Write the structure tokens for this entry.
Amino acid sequence: MKYWIIIVAALNRKRWRTGLTISSLVVAFLLFGLLRSVAVVFTEDIDLSGDDRLVVASKYSIIDSMPISYLQRIKGIEGVDIVAHQDWFGGTYIDRANFFPKWPVPPKEFLDIYEEYKISPQDEEAFINTRNGMIAGKRLVEKFNWKVGDRIPIIGDIYFLKDGTNLWEFDLVGIFNDLENPANEEQVFLNYKYFDEARDMANGTVGNFIVKLDDKEEGPRIAQEIDTMFANSMDETKTYTEKAYAQMFASQIGDIGLIMNSILAAVFFTILLVTGNTMSQSIRERTSELAVFKTIGFSDITVMLLVFIESLVICLIGAFLGLGITAILMPGLSEMVSLSLGQVALDSSIIISGIGIAVITAFISGFPPALGAMRLKVVDAFRKN
């Protein structure tokens, strides 16, 4: 503690420079916390026994469809509770900027599986019994000012109607919400039976199956049994947990983890140069002060440690502030990107990694000026000044 006054005085010598350096570090660690938290969702290992819902997709591509006849065979496997299916509809509502997922599904089975989607019994019954019915999430309804009874036009871009036109019309018969994950409210579900009868191609096929298990610990066995059942068939399957499937779906745009880690590497390389330059300038300006310290009895090692500690304090302040702001912003970020991917959280491992990076940054940026301060000769220092 007796050296703390010297450290504080050094930091206060050029307050603007110290403040701007710390601000740069805050931004760097804010980006680190946000991007690493999202990257973890895309890169962490998935345990098949940790989820009571599985997704059965085509083995070779998510755009390949499978016969709907697979449903009964999957349903016959011991340990399977409910089986539903869904397709990616695509399509545009008025303008391409109005993007939201649209999924043709079997109404009853799908809602039985996704119990977190809260919908009134009347709306659920209407969805089951309305041939061209649609249910929409509460957020989406509020965004477009829809109300139950509206006819919603969707311009098809993948599937056309049998008459050759691409204007689909669906009756909004219900509204659902998801209190645990409001991001799920930004999608709609369509009645699969009408979709399959009306489309001009790929009739009798589905994009994937959703399997609800009696016991989630049976996930690995059931997944293997499903894939073995359809091995060597015309439409082989690959079974995932929901989270793993969502990761694969998102990875179609690129290796998310690699992209984010590359951005962070570039950011921290730049910050390393900024911090190193700050420390070098600070030491050059205080050459005579360091010489005085040595004259009154400070050892070379002590002077070197003072420079290291100064660099460490700057980096740790930036890290704690940046990660602290990340923790404040994390609920909002999680709400934006958690659709089908699970919750995004500032994990303790990310915090520990951030502190470790701060220490490494302090060491690398502080080493050259600290080494120079240690080697400084008193006579040479006074001669320069």
